[in-house]
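Please, structure for the following, as tokens.
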Amino acid sequence: MKVIKTENTSKSMEVFKNSVAKVKESFKNNFKRNMIIIGALVLICGAVILNIKLLVNANEENYDPSYYDDGSENSNAGANSEKEDSYFAMAQLDRAQARDEALEVLYSITASESATDEEKSNAYVSIEKIAKMIEQEANIETLVKSKGFDDCVAVIGDEGINVIVSCDSLMPSQIAQIQEIVYEQAKILPSNVKIIEKQ
């Protein structure tokens, strides 16, 4: 059988090749954009998981007084105080690092040429939301400490806020003060405020 090459066949092949090239190019552009979005989601989920782990550790952290005992009565109190200070400092540092990673991904989306206008707009909204949360958390921590607590870490999430305070036991009036501060600063209802005592 003999194949006869006609002008229509060659034009059809050229159109087919152009279509395949366009599909490949479109896939490459969408692949980059999709990878950026997936990366952003992974980092944001990582930040949420880190915050949850941080709060679980606040409840379950073990303290071995014999490790710090040098025979004096004040040695345990001093060691416990240092451990509390380092806990709150590490909690704030972990929270800041998680937020910085999420912001870095969001900024990369806004600077990406392959991202759509809608994706860039959503990234800007997320950046503003994170910036507002950082400001609210800082205000809450400052105001809670002004009520006589040695230290405080506030972590705002999608479903509420966790407030970790340095104290032995909270009185109902102190719980009410913390809930009032949270509502004034972040408009989060008391039912969505979880207060954790860190001894």
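Residues 7-198 form a domain with the Helix Hairpins fold (CATH 1.10.287.4300). Residues 7-60 form the longest helix (54 residues).
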